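hey
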C-alpha cells in the first residue's frame, strides 16, 4: 500500500545528444508535486525520526470533530474528556482513514493527544494533520512536535535560499512526480520500474537548460558546467548544461 506507484505515461526529462553518458540514481522525495527537470538538493539528517504531531483541546469541547490530511477528510471523531476513550476514538479514526499500523495515538488527558506515524509511514514527513471541523464548545489545534525524516536525508527542490542542505544542487528529476502525505511516490514514465524505492534523478548527462526547473547560476556550478550558452541566459534556446 505504501510503496512507490509507477504510471507509465511520458518520457520525462531527456538527456541531449550524448544520451549514453547519462546516469540516474533513485532518490526519495518529500511530500509534494515536482515537474520533470526540477533541480534537486538533499536534506541532510543525522538520523531517522518518526513524525509526531500533538493535538491540543481548549475550552469546553463536546461532540464530534473532524480531521484530515493531504486533501483527505477523515470521518468524525467523538471527543471525550476521558483520556482512554479519546485515545481509542482517535486511533479508530486514523486506522479507518489510513490503515491499521500507520499511526499510534497516545493521550495522557482529555486535553492533549499525540499522533506518531510509524510502520509504512515511519521516518517520513507525512505532511500536517489538519482540523477540518472544530468540536462544539472548544478549539482543537495541531502542532508538529517532531518532524519526520529519513536517515541520511531526502531530496526536495533546490533553492539557493534554503538552509537545510537543499541549497546545494545534486541532480535533476527525471519524471513528473507526486509524493503523497504517506510517502508514496507516483511518477510518470514510459518504461517499467518495479521495485524502485522512490524516483529517478539524473546525476550525469547533458541537458537543455530551458527544460530545467529552478536552475540558477549557483546550481550550474554545483552540478557541472555550461557547454553551450551562458549562465546569464539559462532559458536561451540550445543552452546546454553538462553534469558529471
Amino acid at each position: 500500500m505504501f510503496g512507490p506507484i509507477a504510471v507509465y505515461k511520458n518520457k520525462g526529462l531527456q538527456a541531449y545528444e550524448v544520451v549514453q553518458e547519462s546516469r540516474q540514481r533513485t532518490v526519495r522525495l518529500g511530500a509534494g508535486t515536482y515537474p520533470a527537470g526540477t533541480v534537486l538538493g538533499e536534506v541532510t539528517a543525522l538520523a531517522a525520526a518518526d513524525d509526531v504531531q500533538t493535538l491540543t483541546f481548549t475550552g469546553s469541547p463536546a461532540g464530534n470533530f473532524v480531521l484530515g490530511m493531504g486533501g483527505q477528510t477523515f470521518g468524525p471523531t467523538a471527543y471525550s474528556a476521558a483520556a482512554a476513550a479519546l485515545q481509542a476514538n482517535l486511533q479508530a479514526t486514523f486506522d479507518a482513514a489510513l490503515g491499521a499500523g500507520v499511526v499510534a495515538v497516545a493521550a495522557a488527558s482529555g486535553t492533549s493527544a499525540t499522533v506518531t506515524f510509524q510502520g509504512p509511514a515511519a521516518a517520513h514527513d507525512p505532511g500536517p494533520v489538519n482540523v477540518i471541523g472544530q468540536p462544539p464548545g472548544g478549539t482543537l489545534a495541531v502542532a508538529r512536535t517532531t518532524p519526520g525524516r529519513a536517515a541520511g536525508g531526502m531530496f526536495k527542490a533546490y533553492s539557493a535560499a534554503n538552509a537545510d542542505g537543499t541549497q546545494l544542487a545534486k541532480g535533476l528529476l527525471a519524471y513528473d512526480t507526486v509524493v503523497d502525505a504517506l510517502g508514496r511516490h507516483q511518477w510518470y514514465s514510459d518504461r517499467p520500474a518495479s521495485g524502485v524505492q522512490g524516483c529517478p534523478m539524473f546525476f550525469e548527462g547533458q541537458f537543455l537548460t530551458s527544460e530545467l526547473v529552478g536552475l540558477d547560476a549557483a546550481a550550474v556550478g554545483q552540478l557541472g558546467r555550461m557547454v553551450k550558452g551562458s549562465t546569464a541566459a539559462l532559458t536561451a534556446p540550445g543552452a546546454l548544461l553538462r553534469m558529471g
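Confidence is low (pLDDT under 50) at residues 1-9, 192-196. Helices lie at 83-98, 217-223.
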